[in-house]
Amino acid sequence: MTPEILAALDAAKRAGQPIVLGTRLPDGMQQLLPDPAASEAVNEAARAALADDETRTAKVGDHDWFLHVYNPPLRLIVVGAVHIAQALVPFAAATGFAVIVVDPRRAFASDERFPNVAVSTEWPDEAMEKLRPDVRTAVVTLTHDPKLDDPALDHALKSPCFYIGALGSRKTHAARLKRLRELGHNDMEMARIRGPVGLNIEAVTAPEIALSIIAEVVAAHRGSPLGQKQAA
Fold first, then answer.
1. Residue 105 confidence (pLDDT) above 60
2. Cα(64)–Cα(71) distance, rounded to whole angstroms?
3. CA gyration radius for the chain?
4. For residues 100-119, b (16+ Cβ closer than 10 Å) or e, as one string?
5. Residue partners of 96: CB distance under 8 A and separation at least 6
6. Where would I find the beta strands (DSSP E) of 61-173?
7. Angle at alpha carbon of residue 91, lines to 142 and 94, rounded to 5°
8. Which of 18, 122, 128, 137 has the fewest CB atoms lying closer than 10 Å?
9. What is this structure's pTM?
10. Residue 230 per-residue DSSP state
11. What CA–CA distance (Å, rounded) separates 101 from 207?
């Protein structure tokens, strides 16, 4: 690996940018992919490897390529250490997400309520600034409190995170969108928010709501039509 490629790879990893180190076999030529200088077939193979999160060898044209995937870790940022969050965290962990629970209310965000879970008791705007959601991050707000949910949603909308969900009724969501519009977000940006959050499975209990949320997050991550935001 050349010093230039190593430096570019390190920069991409620090920035949370998904990238593939492609090695052409058997001559060993390397490049970071996708790359405008590479053929579309090679770039497509790299994008497929990233989507599958799988390092592998692929036949492209007359050459075999070893595609080493460097994906940022899957993360779920949950704003609100509430009962639904307690049910959601185990689902998310079981499906491969590193979970961070954000809530400045220490009575809620405690080790007793969230054992072996990363918990931030900073205010959501401060926590989100440090967490820097990337393309492998989902953000879910659960508090119903604009002082907590709105700053998190504001930061999420300014980020490339792949999923944004907010708990609440349609009436609550309409009021939320009005506040976010006053913060400068347009309708196209706010259309990224799933509100009410989760797949419509007629969920009632906290575990059922948590199940509907993680199912929608996984669907969005995998590119399933179920993960596409539905019209209100």
1. yes
2. 21
3. 20
4. bbbbbeeebbeeebbeebeb
5. 74
6. 63-70, 75-79, 98-102, 118-120, 137-141, 163-166
7. 140
8. 122
9. 0.83
10. P
11. 17
Secondary structure letter of residue 57 according to DSSP: E
Tokens of 137: 């991050």
The DSSP code sequence of 132-162 is: ---TTEEEEE----HHHHHHHHHHHHTS--S
**Separation CA 51–CA 221 (nearest Å):** 9
In the numeric block, the tokens 């490339």 are attached to 160
Rounded distance between C-alpha atoms, residue 214 and residue 211, angstroms = 5
Domains in the chain, start-ordered, CATH in brackets? Answer: 3-70 (no CATH), 75-227 (3.40.50.720)
**Dihedral sign (CA 149, 77, 218, 181):** positive
Half-sphere CA count of 228, side-chain side, radius 13 A:
5
* pLDDT of 53: 87
Tell me the pLDDT tens digit for each residue of 115-171: 999 999 999 999 999 999 998 999 999 999 999 999 999 999 999 999 999 999 999
How confident is the model over 173-206, as pLDDT tens digits? 999 999 999 999 999 999 999 989 999 999 999 9
